[in-house]
Backbone:
């Protein structure tokens, strides 16, 4: 298989406006990946599938990753003049990197039997901007897996044909695979369909004739005596 | 075999929403989760026109316990017993897939004897998985009990082997990073050889029972036909993919473990229907037996685990790795991201039976309710893996 640099050059030749970044992987696995921009993601994906030399027709694994906000402390030695003498002082600066969510696609080729080529998409932030273009129209194997990412990570996939929760129930509120997810102490308060059903049942059946309180008690006592 | 953009994009995809409960003449029926043929707590929302399926939406998650979150909060070794619970029929291959991914992540070598043992155990797992699947499938078709019990009789012998090796019949927890947990007890290999030598008789019997059976042919041929283009695009793997005629077996493609040392063939189907999926498993069992015979002839005494690996306080270097194996149900992969700590930062399972369910609706449309059971049975799902 071609190296990732060659694949990157190939994509850039075909789609000149695409922005692609090579993400190194420091570990011994030696599986670097391509970070592609969201705007041209579907074009790039389609190109990877159709291009005769690559033919990445099999999208094996799709998954999400949550990267939290990071604060990187940097210590720089600054020379300043204190009381007429030049001194070196440590100056710490905090650099904040906002968090984001990632979707990672592992691509293989069944035609040429090579792979994996790993592409990743990155959301703008972890809040309202957690949107990505869906690649389900290109590889249908992403259909359930993107639903799972939506369910567990909360990334909305634009253009997905059927974006619903898949493992958690529909009324569930949060996204449990996020790193800052807090488990509720008590699941019982969650609104379940049973409550709605109970409301409907109340409307359906006529209420029982109201008994006077005294009658009720005496009636019960009589049954107890017998 | 060469899908173009046009054929795939225009590929008929079923309508998405279920809409109202009764839509025109369609009647919505909820099949499952408490249905004996759904192999666990699996539900299908089916819209029927008479007895013909017009829409089908799989609903699952009843067994969901967020396995991946547990994996992220546990040490690398601590996740190993949890992988047994994914596909509880094939704990040995689950162990192997996880161990393989961690070995990729940390760059660990595996000694020779451990590699051979892994192959032997994976093929034994494949044998018992396929045997019991065939039993269950015939069970779903109405052959109550008898074929299933024949299959379970053989499975029991293999589970006994697993028990004498690992101490547990199903939750084996046998593989370790860089090898296996313990060596075989005395006499184990002879016992395994005996079982493998006798296994062809069972396959022969089962084949005689199934192949020419008029009911089986009537129920399975031309039922649930899957085209190779759709199968590739939908990420179908394992026997279900090869039944469509696509030659893709990760044992051959990736050549992980010691599989390049063995001679075996990849059986391929022709029509992609339920009958092909059924028969392909019979043929795969034969190939597994041939691999086992070769492995018994080649295996030599030696160390069972790489002594350089620190099993406890195991911290792989920062990075990420995706490792995959050919499980009995399809491609089983583990995707791990390490930040240098004792727990994985990200732990992802690529479950084959979850992704193989993507095309369930396409397979079932236009067939009767009774066929849905047979098609679902031939997909070979285990809910422990689908819901995770």
Residues:
């Amino acid at each position: 298989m071609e190296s990732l640099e060659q694949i990157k050059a190939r994509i850039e030749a075909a789609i000149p406006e695409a922005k692609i970044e090579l993400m190194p992987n420091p570990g011994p696995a030696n599986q670097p990946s391509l970070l592609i921009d969201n705007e041209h993601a579907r074009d790039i994906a389609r190109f990877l599938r159709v291009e005769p030399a690559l033919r990445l027709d099999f999208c094996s694994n799709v998954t999400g990753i949550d990267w939290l906000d990071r604060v990187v402390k940097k210590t720089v030695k600054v020379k300043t003049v204190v009381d007429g003498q030049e001194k070196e002082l440590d100056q710490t600066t905090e650099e904040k990197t906002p968090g984001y969510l990632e979707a990672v696609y592992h691509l293989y080729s069944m035609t040429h039997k090579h792979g994996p080529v790993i592409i990743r998409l990155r959301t703008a932030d972890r809040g309202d901007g957690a949107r990505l273009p869906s690649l389900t129209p290109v590889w249908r194997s992403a259909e359930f897996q993107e639903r799972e990412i939506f369910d567990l990570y909360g990334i909305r996939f634009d253009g997905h044909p059927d974006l619903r929760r898949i493992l958690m129930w529909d009324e569930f509120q949060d996204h449990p695979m996020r790193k800052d997810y807090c488990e509720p102490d008590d699941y019982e308060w969650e609104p379940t369909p049973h409550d709605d059903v109970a409301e409907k049942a109340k409307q359906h059946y006529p209420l029982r004739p109201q008994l006077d309180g005294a009658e009720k008690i005496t009636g019960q006592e009589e049954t107890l005596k017998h | 075999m060469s899908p173009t953009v046009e054929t795939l994009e225009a590929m008929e995809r079923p309508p998405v929403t279920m809409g109202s409960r009764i839509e025109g003449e369609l009647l919505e029926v909820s099949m499952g989760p408490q249905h004996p043929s759904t192999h666990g707590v699996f539900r299908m929302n089916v819209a029927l026109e008479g007895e013909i399926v017009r829409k089908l939406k799989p609903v699952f998650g009843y067994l969901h316990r967020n396995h991946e979150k547990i994996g992220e909060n546990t040490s690398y070794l601590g996740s190993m017993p949890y992988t047994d619970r994914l596909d509880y029929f094939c704990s040995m291959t689950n162990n192997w897939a996880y161990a393989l991914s961690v070995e990729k992540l940390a760059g660990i070598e595996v000694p020779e004897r451990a590699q051979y043992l892994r192959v032997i155990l994976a093929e034994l797992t494949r044998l018992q998985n396929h045997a019991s699947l065939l039993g269950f499938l015939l069970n779903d078709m109405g052959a109550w009990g008898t074929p299933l019990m024949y299959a379970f009789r053989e499975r029991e012998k293999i589970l006994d082997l697993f028990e004498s090796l690992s101490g547990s019949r199903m939750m084996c927890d046998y593989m370790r990073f860089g090898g296996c947990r313990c060596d075989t007890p005395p006499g184990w290999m002879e016992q395994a050889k005996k079982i493998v030598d006798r296994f062809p008789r069972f396959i022969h019997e089962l084949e005689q029972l199934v192949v020419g059976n008029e009911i089986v042919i009537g129920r399975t041929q031309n039922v649930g036909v899957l085209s190779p283009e759709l199968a590739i695009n939908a990420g179908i793997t394992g026997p279900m993919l090869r039944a469509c005629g696509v030659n893709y077996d990760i044992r051959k493609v990736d050549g992980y473990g010691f599989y390049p040392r063995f001679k075996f063939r990849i059986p391929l189907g022709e029509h992609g229907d339920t009958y092909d999926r059924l028969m392909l498993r019979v043929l795969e069992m034969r190939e597994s037996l041939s691999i086992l015979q070769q492995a018994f002839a080649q295996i030599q005494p030696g160390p069972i685990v790489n002594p350089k690996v620190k099993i406890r306080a195991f911290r792989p270097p920062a990075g990420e790795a995706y490792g995959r194996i050919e499980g009995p149900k399809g491609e089983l992969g583990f995707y791990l991201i390490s930040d240098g700590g004792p727990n994985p930062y990200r732990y992802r399972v690529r479950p084959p039976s979850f992704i193989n369910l993507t095309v369930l609706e396409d397979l079932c449309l236009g067939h009767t309710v009774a066929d849905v059971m047979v098609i679902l049975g031939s997909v070979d799902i285990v809910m422990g893996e689908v819901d995770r």
Notes: Chain B touches chain A through 53 residues (CB under 8 Å). Residues 167 and 253 of chain B are 33 Å apart (CA to CA). The mean pLDDT of chain B is 86.
